[in-house]
Amino acid sequence: MTTPPTAAERPDDKSGQATAHPVGLTPPAAAERPDATPAAAAEHPGGASAIAERRAGLPAAEGPDGASVAVERLDAVPTAAERSHGASATAERPAGPSAALRPGGWSVAGEWRDASPAPAEQAQSTSGAGEPAAGPSGGEGPDGASAFGERPGGPAVAAEGTGAVFPGAESLDALLGDPWRGGNPYGFAAAVARDGRAEFPHAFAERLESADLPLAHVPAGLGGTLTGLDDTLQRVRVAARRDAAVMPATLLSCAAVATVLAAGTPGQARAVADWVHAGRTVAFALSEEHAGSDVLANTCRLEEAPGGGFTLTGSKWLVGRGATAHAALVVARTAPRGPAAFTAVLLGPRELARVRRAAAHPVTGMRGIDFADLVFDGTPVPADAVVGAVGGGLAAAMRAQQLVRLLSTAACLATADTALRTALRFTRSRKAAGAAVAGTAHTERDIALAGAELMAADVLSLTAARYAQLSPGTFGLCSHVVKRVATRLTASSIVRSRGLLGARGFLADGPGSVVDKAQRDNAVVESIDTSPLGVLRAVAAQLPAYAEPPQDARTAPRDVRALCAYGEPLPALDHTALDLAARPRDRVLLGFAEHAATVAARLEECGAPRAAELVREVRAALAATVAAAADARRDRARAAGPEPLDLADSGCLLYAAAAAALAWWAHSGRGLYGERADGAGWLTAVLAVLLAHADGRDPRRVPAGDLAPAAEAVTRLDADPQLFTALPVRLSDAPGPA
């Protein structure tokens, strides 16, 4: 589950760009600013067809063992009704009385209410899975309202093709209905109840499968719904904000699929895509308990068999969905030492049937999802199960992990969104000394801090999502930075949100239970796919290179608009172009060095001198940080101490600040987070908080005037209601207290 810092990274000679400027150099004063508002995204196929409709007619494809995927390998796999912990797909009932929540759950007003259904709700028919039966159009959500029509407290949800930036996310959220309604099986009360029972989200996963969410990471050329990773990120967020456990329940195949697409054969790519189409799970088995994050210390071995093929011996630890997966990608040792000593193999249902699966480990977050060990005792593996070249397995897995780190941030953002939204509604409903708690200076400051931290993580994740498709060969550094920033800042945001609940923050029912689950689920993400230490080591290895001009004089193009044109069409994602090169070619760092002065000047023109000042501070801090990192590398004593990792941590936060400044620049004619065109209030708050974190200062000491716009932004977005994200994503939530 965890991975180590990247191995020594090789040069990449694939791209040639304009003359580079190191972060520490003064960029040219003249540069064109991006055009105004980007166009809305083109309509995409997300949610157009259900996985279930394709299961019966899958085209035959040769799997790694030469067997027909459609005929032999898939027939050996349990159906959707038989999978998940070996139990039948028992209908998931709407949340009722439980140890976690009282009947009806916590009302949107912040108080308990009796959720006895209204007569219209009582008459509503339900399916066997405990979810509302679709109406004639198939568009009714669980609250009985049309998924694409009017909902309480707001105008119609934007359907696909109506001009929404992320129509797939809006449509999916509408399909799932108001999460605050106690009887909604896809709402907060149901999630807390499932968590208390450590129950797999059967019906929720089936609902998301019917909307094709598991295909959101599969390229369209293989029948998936991936168009833009920023679109995928938003679709996953609106589902995971209700229960982050639905991510491993529906999307866990991403790591294995990405590895196959990065290094495997067309037949293997077709095989894994067909498995995902059929609702199957492909586990990713890399980590071993004794080795921890040091994958080079792994001992599970793949050996040549006398009669041909291979045998697997050893074990893999904490494999997501290990107890219930239908196939697995395993990275095992094939040579005594070095990063080229590992090979990846793809095990189908027939091979996996010969593997012993240990009982799932108890976990604190994402309960109901099995994290189990796989034990191999001379397991036969066919020769054509090898993915890529013998000895190339670890490199292939590390390349694919760049995408996994990015997509895992959806869980971070989703849980922080839920925690902050819960705190906002609670503080608006409570009074102290006759006044709303939300209006006190202390509460406003903590809401602003939680909001600024969430917005910083959001804007970086959206930028990183586009970056991965626009320039996969230079995405390596960004993939580590976005993972570190998203996990650190959303964890901090959730802590602040929980503190706003007061004593109710630790009660096992009410708003505290919703935020508690969000916090525990959020914590799981920090060590999934790459450990925090592994992330910082990878950043520390690359940061010093930005203190000097790149020797090959190649860098990002001068126009960095495309990185921040959220929702605009993107080229097809090329998994094979993902690279581990460590040359200083990162588009965000070099693009910011190129344009920081122009961004600051534009802010001055827009009447935002404080934001302009902060942009200049970010640029100076980045220059100082990369210079210090270079100096520390040259000093053996400093290099052996904690300083390089501390500088890497600061560098990640400043990288996020650079991305935020570029995002404002790209959208200055439109405005982000609900602000007017040219509005820079959100940017001021985000930069001030990131600079404080990077410098080791308490962000609570940031001037109130800098923070205030962040509180205004999240309050405005919740009232609409919209996702806490840069461009509008309308939600199905009933409005909270004014």
User: What is the radius of gyration computed over CA atoms, rounded to a whole number of angstroms?
Assistant: 25 Å
Rounded mean pLDDT score: 82
β-sheet strand percentage: 5-15%
SS element count, helices: 23
Trace the largest sheet across and list its strands: 1-4-5-8
Tell me the major beta sheet.
4 strands, mixed
Structural class of the secondary elements? alpha+beta
Distance between the ends:
43 Å
Q: Which stretches are low in confidence, meaning pLDDT under 50 for 5 or more residues running?
A: 1-22, 24-162
Briefly characterize the structure.
With 738 residues, the protein is an alpha+beta fold. The chain has helices at residues 51-54, 69-73, 119-122, 167-176, 188-197, 202-210, 229-240, 246-251, 254-263, 266-277, 349-352, 393-429, 441-470, 476-499, 511-525, 532-542, 561-564, 587-605, 609-634, 636-640, 643-666, 681-695, 704-719, and strands at 282-285, 301-304, 310-320, 327-333, 342-347, 356-357, 371-381, 386-387, 431-432, 435-436.
